[in-house]
Each structure stands twice: as C-alpha cells, then as structure tokens.
Write a structure and sequence with these properties.
With about 600 residues, this protein is an alpha/beta fold. Among the domains are: about 325 residues, ABC transporter type 1, transmembrane domain (ABC transporter transmembrane region fold, Up-down Bundle), CATH 1.20.1560; about 70 residues, Rossmann fold. The protein is about 65% helix and about 10% strand. It has 20 helices and ten strands. It is elongated, with a radius of gyration of 35 Å. The two termini are about 40 Å apart.
Length: about 600
Amino acid sequence: MHPRSSPQRPPANPLAFVWYMTQQHRWPAIIAVTCVIIAEALGGLLTLELKFLIDGAQLAVENGFQDVTAMWLWGMAYPLTFFMDENIWRCSGFSGMRWITSMRASISRTLFAYLTGHSSTYFNDRFAGALTNKITNASTGAADMVSTVLWEFLPLIVGFLWSFLLALWSNAWLGLILGGWVVLFLVINVYLVVRKLKFAFAVAAQSSVLKGKMVDATSNISAIHQYARHMHEREYLDQYIESHREADRYNWWLSEWILFLNGGLISIFIAGMIAMSLLLLQSGTITIGTVVMITTIIIGIMRSLFFIGFKMTDFMDKYGQISEGLQELLQPHQIVDAPDAKEFAPKEGNLSFDAVSFSYGRKPVFTGLNLEIPAGQKVGLVGMSGAGKTTLTALLLRQYDVQGGSIRIDDQDIRSVKKENLLKNIAMVPQDVTLFHRTIRDNIAYGKLDASPEDVERAAKLAQAHTFIRELPAGYNTFVGERGVKLSGGQRQRIAIARAMLKNAQILVLDEATSSLDSESETLIQQALAELMKGKTVLAVAHRLSTLQAMDRLIVLENGTIIEDGTHAELLTHAGMYARLWQSQVRGFIQE
C-alpha cells in the first residue's frame, strides 16, 4: 500500500493504538519509564533511611550521645538521597515531555492522513466537525492516558511493591496486612471501573453527536437568519444537550460512589496498620523508627489511593473517548490502491468505459455501459436528474470503484494505478465550489503548489478572475472566509477554473452548476471555460447551452443507459430526448 495515498491502518484498540504510536518515540519512553522506576525506588529508600535516622537518634540519646555515628550517617544520607530522587524525577519529566508531546503530534498527523484517505461516501454520512473533534480527542486523550500511567499508575505500582517489602521486612503481620489489603482494593476498583466503562462510552458518543450538531448549525447560520429559526435551532439542539447532560451526570454519579467506597476502604486500612504497629511496639517487637516508617508508608499510600479511583475512572473515560473516536476514524478505506499499483502518467488522454457496472446499494446505476472518448475530445453528459451523469464522473475520479467492467485511460485500468497519481492527472471543476479559508492566492495555487505569483495571476487572468481580485482590499492576499462565503457564486467558480488551469492536467472533469448567474458572470464563466477546455480531454456534466454547443460530442443518459450519442446539431435532428430538453431550455440552461 502506498504510504502517501493509502496510509497504514493503525490499531483501533486504544491501548494497542497508544503502544503503536509509542514505537515511534521509543527512546524517550524508555528513559522516562526507567527514571520513574528509579525515582520511586529512591523514594522508598528515603522511608527506610528515615527509620534508621530515628533509630540512630534514639540510640544516641540512650547512650548519652557517646555514639552518634548512625545518627549523622543517616542524617547526611537522607538529603543526598532526596537530591538524587528529585533530579531523577526531573529527568523523567523532560523525557516524558518529549515522548508525550511528540506522540500527540504524531497521532494528529497519522489520524488526519488516514481520515483523508476515506472515500466521499464516508464523509457524506458524517459531520466534518465531529470527525476533526475525534482527532483532537484521540491525540489529547492518548497523551493524558500516557501521563496517567507514567506519573500515577507506574509510581503507585512500584511504591506498593517497595512498601510491601519494607513492611514485610519489618514484620510479617504488617506485610501481610498491607499486601492483602492492596490486592483487595485494586480488585474492587478494577471491577467497578470496568463496569463503568460502558457509561464512559455513552458520554463520548453523546459528546461527539452534540459537537457535530453544533458545527452543523453554525455552518448553516445564514439559513437560520434567513428563516428566523433561532428558537427552532435552540429547541432542536436542546434535546442533544439534555442527552449529553444525562449521560455525563450518571457517569459522574458512579465516579462519586467509587470515591466514597475508596474512602471507607482506606480508613479501614489506616486503622488496621496503625493498631498493629502500636501493638508490635508495645510488645517490643519493633522500634519507634519502624513505627515512623510504617506511618510514612501509610500516609504515602493514603495520598496515592484516595484519588486512585478517580484516576482510574478518568483513565477509563479517556479510554472510552478514544475508543469511540478510533472506531469511527479507523474504519477500513473503501477505495485502496492495489498492492502492485503502478505510477500513472497518461500519454494522450484516451478514456474508455468498458462494460461498466455500478450500484448504490441495491439500486443499479450502470449495467454494462460502454463509452469511448478519444484524446482531446470534449464530451458533454446530458440527461434527467438521476440518469447517472455525476456518478460517471465520480467513477472516473475513483470516488467509487466500478463493480463490473473497467475504466481505462490510455489502456491503463485506473484501479491498477496509484490513486494519488491518477488524481494528479485529472483536473476537476465541481458543481458546488467550496474554497479553503485561506487567501485567494493560496486557493488558486492549490492546483500547483510550487506555482509562482506570476503563474497564479496568469491563471486568474485566463479564468476572467484577475479584475475582481484586484478590486478586493487585499487583492490576492484576501481571505475568502469559510468555504469561500465572502465571494459570490460566480467568483468562486472562476477561482476554481483558475485552479484547474494552473493544474493543467490532460483530462478535465467539469460538473457545471445549474443555478443561473447574472449576465456578466455568465459571460465571464463561458469565456473562462472555453479557455480551460483547450487541448484537453473533457468529460462534462453540461447544463449551459453555450457549453453544450462547445462540445465535440454529446452523450444522453437515461437510467444509466446511453440513449443518444452525437453532436449538438445531429441530436437536434433526431427529435429525441436531447431535442426535448433543448426545447425546454430556460434562460440558457437545460432543465432536468
């Protein structure tokens, strides 16, 4: 699979996905994990040194300070160990910072690359805002999960192990109480958190839907204003807000109950450890230093465990959020390159549709359609709505793959070549032109990324766009707004034509807009299209009479079948569907 046109599909399981992304930043991860383990071990050593310091001080007091060696030895060792511990923690911080920030960026790149490899069908069924939100959630959620594991769970595990060994070394009963209680605590919390996972999924799903609905509303703000539907939209959105609130509230309610249970378990643990320590001290089995060490262990565990339930539930919330996003984003691509896909460079631009069959679900569009278009010929597609005109152009662009037969360019099956290469050699002017919220220069140069300013202006002049661009306050540096809303429909069409001119591909696909424009824009677009089509193989869904007359050949489709094929003049004499459509023209447009 070509890495640029069809990125490798990452695992959709959140833990496997994080591990997969971590492989790209292995050394910072290894250093960070190692530093945390060493730092936590030194923290346990500090607890042991504190015991020896207190026992040494007690011994010095008892012998009238005749022997202060142990007291001063451990008194000097304690701050030195503390200094080492802090510096190793900082080392873990710097390494973790590099690991997590780099991984977050890699996730955004990987998911965006995979997302853009999906077919048009995938995007037609989903909110664009919700999809981009899933990428953000996955990158930040994965970073939060790694941070939690690195600086919460891993220190806790190492700390528990060290504390258990210290308690067991001090007294078997203390070790057994601590070890048994920790196992019980973790089993209960893991059970509860896993049970809670489905509610975390519900919150993530509701959040995604809500954000998608908000983006949909704001993207159509003009319609809301024009129809005075402000209250309707608020009421429509309110049902999704309420669904999200209910899911979020119940998820939070369960978290609070887990914290409440943990508080009770920790209280029982503290009471048991302190009581056992005092009994052992009273019997002379352990020293005051050991009591202080055990108390320090208890305080450390109490601080770590009090919010461990919260950390685990938060971790699973992130897990659910990431899982929901990855399941949506990482669905298998519908259109992929063949393993042996070749580079594509058409020599002439001959198009051949050989026995093409295609269906939308159970609805057949084409059954055995045959069409030959010689290089340099301009072919217009005509027919009623639903005849298959736009579908035919979509198949040529591999927005869908044919289900039978083949489409060939210069005897090369388009399924046997790399899709990215294929699209680089086809220019497209769509019916509904949308632009990036970037400058006009950037939008035109999208057809040729290394184009010089002179190349851009030359293309704009040929597309009859240079004059209106120069009249804008910032000229070619004018930002066009989201989807190009700051420009009129005719202006957007001319920008799209300029972009296609700059691309200068041998094959041109044109899907004309059916909406009427003012007479000046209409004339300018006719001139621009005439310039664009020179010397190219053209497949056009044509509506304008001027465009139809400029075609070398017209193909009339009905229910996915070619029913007429000829020049404009020839088809008018046949008195068939084309002649009827021509006679029904309104203001220069064929009516469907």
